[in-house]
Amino acid sequence: AQLQKNLGGSLGRLSADLYREQHHFVFELLQNAADCLYHDGVTPKFKLVLNDDKLVALQNEVGFSEQNVRALCAVDDSTKPKMTDGRQHIGRKGIGFKSVFKASDMPTIHSGPWHFRFDANLTPDSAGDLKGIGLVVPHWVLPSSKLYPDWTTEIALPFKVGKDLSSYEKAALRRDVENLDGALLLNLPKLRLIEIEDGTLDPERPIRRSLSRHDIVTVAGEAPWRIVEIRDNEEVRQWLSVDRSIPFQENSKEQIHITLSFPLPPRNCRTSREWLKKDMEPLPTYCYLPLRSFGWYVALHANFDVTASRHEIHSDKSWNVKIKEQLPSLFVQAFHIMKDHLFPSQEQFAEGLEPLSCSAPAAELLGEEEGGKEIRCIPPYFLFRFLPIPGALGKGESDFFRGLEAKLWQRFQSDRCVLAADGTWLEPSKVLRAPSAMHKVVPETLLKKHKGGMQYMHPSFEQLPANCLKHLGISDQDAAFNILIEVAIAEVHSSREVDIPWLRQVYGLLHSFAFGELATSQRDDELNRKGLADRSRIRTEKIANLRLLPLSDRRELATPRDCGVFMTVDLSSDPQRERLVKSLGISLVDPLLLAEPEGEVVRRLLQQCEVQELSTAALLIDGVLPFLQQKPSEDTLPILVDGLILWSKSSQDVALMAECDRLLRSRSEGRLTSFSKAARAAVRLPFSSVGEESAASSFSSSSSEGEQVDSEGNPTPPQLHFSSPGDNLLVFSKGFHEALAEEAKQQGDGKAEIAKGHALLAEKMGEFADPATKVLHKAFLEHAKASVTDLSAFVGFLQSLGVSLSLYPASIVEDKEVESIAMFEQLGGRFLEEKTKKFRDLVQESEFPATIVNDFASPALEVAMQKRAPGLDKVLGACSVFELKDQFECTLVLQGGRKLPIRSQLAVSLRRSAWLTTRDAKMVAPCDSSLFFQDKEDALPTSIQPFLSLVEPDYSSPGVEVFLRRLGMTRVNSRDLLKLVRKWSSNNDRCFTEGFMMDFYTAFHKYIVNENANDVRDAFKVNLEPLIFIPEEVDWTKANPNWNTKRAVSNKYIGKWVNVKQCVVKMAEYGNKHIVGQEYPWLSHLGMYRELELHYNKNLEKQFGEFGVIADCTAEMAVESLEFAVQRETLTTQDLEIPKFALRWLNRRSNKEWFPQFRDALARYHATPLTDGRFVKWAKAPEHENEAEGVLQVYSPSPSQTGGQAVLHGELWKFHRSSYQRMGMCPATMGQAAAATLAPVAPATQPAIHLEEVVASGQIEDSLVEQDLRRTLSYIQLLLHDRYPERYRDINALAAQLMKVEIEVYEYLQCGDEDIDCCWEGGVLQVRDIPLRGDKLKGALRALLTSDCCLGIRDIHNAWVLRDCMTLGEEVLVLLIQAGKPGRSIARKMLVEYEVGSMRDFTKLDLQWWLQQPPLPMEEAPATMTHRCRPATGHLGLPSASIAVPLGGPSGGGGCSPATASRTGSSGLDLGLGSSQNGQGQRQQEQEQEQQEEEEEGILGKATPSGTLCMPKK
């Protein structure tokens, strides 16, 4: 019972797992049909009917026998006997039918008298515990249940009940049925027709398909074959099947049967070639029914011994091994069948046609009625298209066929299976696959002659893939390249005369193989491995070693690698080079080889083989350089000159020199790297001495004793010597200079200086040159003049070799080591920038020892300078034109590699030796810093020249001016004149004539404009230096006839120096009122401004305007001058003439805006006289009285009120009533005049400058300019905190307002057409961006200090405060950008020089930084405090004339403030009408005494305001 139970389970598992494919049972049904017996005359056929609920298999066989039924009811009990020829039935294991239970639980069979079914779900009631036994237990059914009575056998497979197949499984089953291929019929010996009917989609109209087989040609014999036609409905395919049956063993009845079926081109394909180009898919391998694909491209069938699943072949079975061993020979057999019957005829081969229908012998096997012409011809390479390449077989679980591919190809390699170009069949090794171009160059006869009968491959075989040709053993293009070389060598060496045109074709083809279209091999695997570049390199290497290259002399052949072989070029246009080539014996390729268009290809190939054209580089390396390395002689002098000329022309071409270097490295295998160095080391030039040249050029009828002469009494030519140019300090001879001078003259005026220089050196050589000096030989000059077209260029080349154009040749001395900075300074005069920098500031001691390299020295020049011969400056000037200028500098190499340019020994000698001739014929050294020279075309006026130390060089001599510049001497320029006028001003030189100063300012202006010297302009405009000279007295004018009586000695003015803000150009004219017979200069008499027109010609208006002097007086200046005169007590109400002049001048102004401006100025300055003798600020209305300190409402006199403390002085009202009325003055009443209070003392202020509207653009955010200004104000805040506490408290009360101060930085800030540095606009300081910053920001700094919008330090009582703040601020601005540690540097200055103790602990102070920017952190504080009184010089911000007013210094000034003086009364200056003359004199005396004390204490300095506050126009 247990055994029966196990049997049932095994049967269930067997039916489910027997085959991998879900629907393999369909093949089992087909197998049964193929194994059945059929009646004679009946076409065996098989039909499948697929419905939604079942699959039915029908066949017209004889019917089942009892043995067949018993076999179905058993396992491994097949009744199929072996065939008589040893073949076996397809199914022989007796288990295949059990696979139908995958799809059906109750298969039903009707065959002949047998009608039964199986039930896989046999219940326990009927079978006990034997589940699965229903697979082998039949159940009878009624014959009437048969569905298709016309068919002998019907096998119905109803799909499983209750377990219907899923839609996916049904679709898969339907797809498998549809995919049944007609190729099945190739290997089923009995079946001829398979019908398929699919009713799953539409049962009423099922899809029908018919697969049929028809054997068109059948040939029996030892090599049986047939052509089989398979029809799939209307589609027709033909197959060539080749059979082989052999006994398994000798005398064995068991037969091995193998069939190879090759698909033939279908009828719908236009040509066979077109069909064979398509990618092929592997076909299944058959053992009657398909097993699986093993990688074969043919339908391989054999009676293999397969596994039960029919999926694999037993690889260890000797039966199967026997089958595999037969395959190579069977493929060869198939090839010969195709060759004999299906390949095109010889005529078609010859015509190269693609056959469409068969005219081969296969057609003869068919009758006309069989349609023999429908058989397609196949190309001769047809079979090789189906051979598997190595690695294609043996994929999957079994490696049974692995390795068979190589045996297949090897079998064909020994067979005549490749068609040659002439239609004969040869072994693959005898066939050459070569490009068509090679067929023309190497004809087949030549190939057969030199390669043992080898022929070219037929073009049709080109259709095969490259890997097929490779495995077949056909020589590919790589072999064609080698064969071409072998044939060419054999042909050349076997011929008596070289056929150069044929060789040209050979080289052209070799180029194509190496670099052209033939360089790309079809062997893709090799191409991927080596790469195209490697293939080209390898082939080029082979070509380069071929001895096939014919030379022009036709005497021998060369290889491209032979040294000294070059391709020819046309030298007919260059006789010199042609002569040089012949002289040097250069080997040239035969020009015929490079002729014709094909010759260009040969030329390119030879270039790739490093055969150079006879280029300049090749001629230099392989011709000139070897010649230079030989010992020179007089006979080879022409060759030497030609070689040097070629070298000189080539030396200017950087690319050519690089090519020479590359070629030299290649020739010397890396030992030599630079052609220039190698040639310089080898070259030797002929020379003689100056004395010998002079003797040879002089004719003497009688020779002196010891002198060698010829028969005619002429001195013999100088002896010829050879030496390196750099060894003996060669110079050019007199003849060279004469020739060069003549050449330069012919080139025109542009070379005039060069011509003069050479002529001068030729003339002076005998006088100034040492007779022992070595010069180039005369013979060398003669050859050079005969060969060179541009002698100056050739001379320049020789100069680069070391031949000197100077009479005093210089050489590079040995490098010198300098141990320390002190040692370098002891050398003296070496530092180039000694006028502007210090050497110790540029280097550190740690950078020593250093080395001086490339230093020049000239012993001959030293000797010449010691002689101090007159005219040496002319000679040296000419020498400098050509050479000396390039020998003035050398290099100091410091430790670490840093390099500094310094003066050479030669330059130091020239600077320190006294050889320069001055105007007074003295010999001086050029290093004298007080020496200048002036341009010939732009000389100074003669009146000014005595104030400068001038050297007047001989400008007719070439190069003198440039030479002097290189020695450190300078031309007079605007900066030199600035130094001169500064010297006059600082020395307080006071005696000059009007004409002299006019000449000076005219020349000064001319130099400034020509040089665009903005820094010189800044000395006038920005720094406000006192550089304008004016007479002390106003009346000393050029128009005053009595001024001569007031002159000093020598008819010179006694004057003083003022800045541009203290003068105007034009006079302030006022009408016809005259004093002393002339218009009265009232503005100048007020003392604050000077009208330059009084003393200088009107022609200087442009010059003074360039300096920054304002042209006309303004209302502001007029009113300010009135107050200034009041302060100095030079203007009182007793003498009101000058105010009258001012008002009269005002009335003459045509612009109506002048009265409001004048009125606004009167409100700011104490310039309005009252009846009580005071000068006050006049307010326009009572409500405006308190707007500014000391401003009053002033009234005009009236009949009821003519006196009082606030009434205008009647003298002015009398003459200028209309003017005051226009300005809005009202009559006074008694009450108004009595209520007025006294005005304060009039302060002196800086002149205001009114400009046009300011335009700002390009605002910059977070600018460094703004940061520097805000940070500088923080240091000034600390200064005020310590030094001026009272002023600090006043300003700090406005701290909240100051912290809101805005600073805006713009790229452009313009007022009118001029750039300005800063201006206030609506409480915002606008500043122009200045890249260098530093002291360039002092104008903006002054604006912050003096404006009411900020600190407001500007009145006369704070002058010293302003000076200290400005001085400190400028120093801080500079340190912020120049100091390495600005915080430390500024802190030291604050602590040591300014004694600001709070600088140490400013972080601990409870300060509100006014501009919200604290000082920088102090990186390092000084260790000690050294008290030092600060100098009194600084920026007062006041005009120099205002310093006569006593200044009230702050308390606690540390001894640095001036002495103070008290004023009478709290109201200020007492200018009452009743003041006595003695009182005025006493006050004047007190002022003079105070000023004298201040000057003695060194406190007051010249007033030099450094900036101007530009106010926008309101």
Features:
alpha+beta, 54 strands, 12-stranded mixed sheet, elongated, 1514 residues, disordered C terminus, 51 helices
Explain how this protein is built.
There is one protein chain. This protein has 1514 residues and is an alpha+beta fold. 36% of the residues lie in helices and 14% in strands. It contains 51 helices and 54 strands. The chain has a twelve-stranded mixed sheet. Strands 50, 51, 52, 53 and 54 form a five-stranded mixed sheet that branches. The longest helix is centred in the first third of the chain and has 24 residues, at 318-341. The chain is elongated, with a radius of gyration of 61 Å. The termini are far apart. The C terminus is likely disordered.
Strand content: 5-15%
Rounded radius of gyration (Å): 61 Å
Rough outline:
elongated
List segments where confidence is low: pLDDT < 50 over at least 5 consecutive residues.
Answer: 81-87, 367-373, 522-529, 699-708, 1041-1050, 1071-1078, 1182-1188, 1234-1252, 1420-1483, 1489-1514
Mean pLDDT: 77
Strand tally, please? 54
- In quaternary terms, these chains amount to single chain
Structural class: alpha+beta
The N- to C-terminal Cα distance equals 129 Å
Strand order across the largest sheet: 5-4-3-6-2-1-7-8-9-10-11-14
Tally of DSSP helical segments: 51
Helix fraction? 25-40%
